[in-house]
């Protein structure tokens, strides 16, 4: 049993490639799940039932807030969010303010 062994360069490259594929797969699954959740909230808010119950605006606001919160991760290329075009209206986004709170 050796105290020190030099790793095989091929196995290092294979491990790096596998890790990259795993990260991309995880990012894709997380992106798809967030996109589906945001889209579901947005579209469900337009249903007749949501309007009758008075939840339409709250559901749309929740979808918009979730998208705006996750958009920073999209800009860092961690997530790829796919949302309805009508949700990207600048007038809707202007109603929200994102504040970064830093702990000292």
Percentage of β-strand residues? under 5%
Q: Could you tell me how far the N terminus lies from the C terminus, measured between alpha carbons in angstroms? A: 48 Å
Number of helices: 4
Mean of pLDDT: 85
Which ranges are low-confidence, i.e. pLDDT below 50, for 5 or more consecutive residues? Answer: none
Number of strands: 0
Describe this structure in words.
The longest helix is centred in the N-terminal third of the chain and has 36 residues, at 9-44. By secondary structure, the protein is mainly alpha-helical. Helix content is 63%, strand content 0%. It starts with 8 loop residues before the first helix and ends in an 11-residue tail after the last helix. α1 runs antiparallel to α3 (56-75). The chain has helices spanning 9-44, 48-53, 56-75, 90-93. The radius of gyration is 21 Å and the shape is elongated. It is built from 4 helices and no strands. The protein has one domain (17-93).
Explain the layout of strands and helices.
Blueprint lengths: L8 H36 L3 H6 L2 H20 L14 H4 L11
Question: Which tags fit this structure?
Answer:
elongated; mainly alpha; 104 residues; single chain; 63% helix
Brief summary:
By secondary structure, the chain is mainly α.
């Amino acid at each position: 049993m050796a105290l020190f062994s030099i790793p095989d360069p091929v196995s290092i490259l294979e491990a790096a490639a596998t890790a990259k594929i795993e990260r991309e797969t995880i990012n894709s699954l997380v992106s798809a799940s967030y996109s589906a959740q945001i889209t579901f909230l947005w579209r469900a808010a337009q249903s007749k039932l949501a309007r009758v119950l008075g939840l339409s605006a709250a559901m749309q606001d929740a979808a918009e807030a979730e998208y705006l919160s996750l958009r920073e991760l999209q800009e860092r290329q961690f997530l790829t969010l796919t949302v309805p075009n009508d949700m990207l209206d600048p007038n809707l986004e202007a109603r929200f303010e994102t504040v970064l709170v830093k702990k000292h």
